[in-house]
Design a protein that fits this description.
- This protein is mostly beta strands.
- It contains 3 helices and 18 strands.
- Strand 15, helix 2 and strand 16 form a beta-alpha-beta unit.
- It is globular, with a radius of gyration of 24 Å.
Length: 330
C-alpha cells in the first residue's frame, strides 16, 4: 500500500530567525559547520541523530531531496546525547556522509545547506535492554515530517576547489503535531493503548485501526459482519474510498506512478468513487474492513508478528486491537 501523502504538507513552526555565516572556501582549510540549539526550543536536553544535508539546487529544502536512490543529495550525520539549549555542536572535516564520504569530496559549486535533528527517546525494555530510537509521532516513521523534530532554514553556500565549508546555523524550526483523522459516515478510527506493547517498551504504546463500516451499519442492530483485515504499511486513514465524483482533470489518466509518471489522479479518484458506489449497492456483500496502524520505533509497521526486537505485535493486534474492533463494530 502506498503511504499517505498527507505528511508532505505538514505546517511548520518558525520560532526564530536563522543566521548563517558561510565561508566561500577561498583557501584550503578544515571544514567546520556549527549548529546551535537556541534557548526556548526545548525545556530539556535532547538526544538524536543530527544531520547536515547539502543540495545542489533550491527546488525544495535539502531534507526533501534525500532518498535511498541514485538521485539523492548529500547527507552527513552524527549521534548526539544531552544537547542542551544554547549549546553548539560542530561537524568537522572528519564527518562521515553519503553518497560522498567527506566534505572534501564535494565538487566546487553553489549549494544549499540545512541542519536537522531526528529526536531520539530512551526506551527501557522489559528484556533489560536500554535503547535510544526515534518514536513515531503519528507520521508513519517519516523523519522529515515527524512532529517534534527540529531543523534550520536552508541557506546558500559556495564551495571552491580545495576550499573548506564554514557555516553556522541555528535549529529554530519545530515540526508541529499532526491532527488525527476525522471520522465520517463510513470511515471510523479506533485507537487503543496496548497493554502488551506498553509492558515490552516501558512506555505507552498505541495501535490504531482505520475502519470501513458497511452501508446501513447500525450499532444497535444484532446483525454481525465478516471482518476483512488489510495489513500494509502505515495508513493515515482509510484510502481508496471516495463518496464524491472525481474532481481531477479527466486528461490526468495515466495509471503508472512507479516510473515517475504522476498523471494518474483522475483514474485513482474514479476507482475510489466506483468502490463507494459498489459499497452502497444492494447487490454488494456487507463487510467490515480495517487497515492497521502498527508503526514502531524501528519502522512504519511491525509486520504483525511477535519479535524479540519489537515485542508482541502479533498478539497485540490479534487479541487487543481486533478484539476492540469486533466489540465496537460486530
Amino acid at each position: 500500500m502506498k503511504k499517505s501523502s498527507v505528511f508532505l504538507i505538514l505546517p511548520l513552526l518558525l520560532l526564530a530567525t536563522t543566521f548563517i555565516f558561510s565561508g566561500c572556501g577561498e583557501s584550503a582549510g578544515k571544514s567546520e559547520i556549527s549548529i546551535t540549539l537556541p534557548a526556548g526550543i526545548s525545556e530539556e536536553p535532547l538526544d538524536g541523530r543530527l544531520l547536515i544535508m547539502i543540495a545542489d539546487n533550491e527546488e525544495s529544502e535539502p531534507r526533501s531531496q534525500i532518498s535511498s536512490g541514485s538521485s539523492t543529495q548529500l547527507i552527513f550525520g552524527m549521534d548526539i546525547n544531552d544537547w542542551k539549549p544554547g549549546e553548539t555542536i560542530r561537524f568537522d572535516q572528519d564527518a562521515i556522509g553519503y553518497p560522498l564520504r567527506s566534505f572534501s569530496e564535494i565538487p566546487p559549486g553553489d549549494y544549499w545547506i540545512q541542519a536537522f535533528l531526528n529526536r531520539y527517546e530512551t526506551f527501557n525494555l522489559s528484556t533489560g535492554h536500554t535503547i535510544k530510537m526515534h518514536m513515531d509521532q503519528g507520521e508513519g516513521q517519516q523523519w522529515r515530517s515527524s512532529p517534534g523534530n527540529i531543523y534550520s532554514e536552508p541557506v546558500k553556500i559556495k564551495i571552491v576547489d580545495g576550499g573548506a565549508i564554514k557555516a553556522s546555523m541555528e535549529a529554530v524550526n519545530v515540526i508541529l503535531p499532526i491532527d488525527p483523522p476525522e471520522d465520517t459516515e463510513y470511515i471510523k478510527h479506533v485507537r487503543i493503548q496496548s497493554k502488551k506493547l506498553t509492558e515490552f517498551w516501558g512506555r505507552p504504546m498505541y495501535l490504531q485501526a482505520n475502519v470501513l463500516v458497511p452501508y446501513g451499519f447500525d450499532s444497535s442492530s444484532a446483525v454481525r459482519y465478516p471482518l476483512f483485515v488489510f495489513q500494509g504499511h502505515f495508513p493515515y486513514s482509510f484510502d481508496g474510498f471516495r463518496t464524491t465524483p472525481p474532481d481531477a482533470d479527466p486528461k490526468d489518466n495515466i495509471y503508472n506512478a512507479r516510473f515517475d509518471i504522476t498523471g494518474y489522479k483522475y483514474i485513482e479518484q474514479s476507482e475510489a468513487y466506483n468502490f463507494y458506489l459498489n459499497w452502497i449497492s444492494t447487490s454488494f456483500p456487507r463487510y467490515v474492513v480495517i487497515e492497521i496502524q502498527h508503526q514502531n520505533p524501528y519502522y512504519d509497521d511491525s509486520y504483525a508478528v511477535n519479535s524479540a526486537n519489537i515485542g508482541p505485535y502479533g498478539d497485540a493486534i490479534m487479541y487487543e486491537l481486533i478484539t476492540e474492533v469486533k466489540r465496537q463494530f460486530k
